Structure formats: structure tokens, C-alpha cells
Amino acid sequence: MESKQKLFYLPEAHTDFIYAVICEELGFIGALAVIALFGVYGWRGLRAAFAAPDGFGRLLALGITAMVLCQALINFAVVLGMVPTKGIPLPFVSYGAQLARDAPGDRRAAKYFTASPRTAW
User: What share of the chain is helix, strand, coil (3-state, %, to 5)?
Assistant: First the structure.
């Protein structure tokens, strides 16, 4: 695709601003599809909460659903320029800061994933 924003025009285009890249590459239909998928997730989460047999299940389903949707709404607001950058990735879509930082292929984190000859048994 001919995307310009992922070529160092946006800070952290693979995590915090992935929605901007999705909007640029997939257009208005792709942007609406992402919002619709989060809407379906919220609807299914509320259905699961109301169908739970006990209070703990209701609160658990409602809490997980609210957590994911609030994170998505904050990310949408950051990408649209409504609030300052928070560093919150888009759930289920972007990498997230911790995963990108602690990947096994990362040279800085490689010392935690490999054993040195002195400590190996």
C-alpha cells in the first residue's frame, strides 16, 4: 500500500497511532469497520454480563468489556487529536509498548532470554 504515515511521519505508528495508519490504508470503510468491531465487542460483552448466573460473573464481564472499550475510546481520541498522547495502544490491533520492548529478537532484551555460558548447567 502507498501509506505515508507509517514512514516516520507519526510517532509510534505501529502502537499508539495504528488507527491512523488503518484509516489511511483502508479508508473510511476500514475505519468504520474497526469502530463497528469494537461496537460488536461491547454488545457481546454486555450480553455476556447480563446472562451471567451470578454477581461475580456479571461484574467480571462488565469490567473486562469496559476496560477494553475505554482503552479503545482513549486511543481513538488520541489519534483524532482530541486529547494529548497517552501511550495507550489500540486493543487487539497494535503491539503495545511492553511487547515491542521485550520481544525476544530485541538486542536490548536478548540478555534476558539467553543463558550465558557461565550460568548454564
Answer: 55, 0, 45
CA 7 to chain centre: 20
Give CA–CA dist 45/58, Å, rounded.
10
How many whole angstroms separate alpha carbon 4 and alpha carbon 114? 37
Q: Which residues lie closer than 8 Å to 42 by C-beta, 6 or more apart?
A: 65, 69
Q: What is the pTM of this model?
A: 0.69
d(CA 79, CA 73): 10
Single-letter residue type at 76 = F
- pLDDT digit string, tens, across residues 73-105: 998 998 888 988 878 888 888 765 444 444 444
**Domain ranges within the chain, ordered by starting residue:** 18-113
How is 105-121 classified by DSSP, letter by letter? T-TTTHHHHS--TTT--
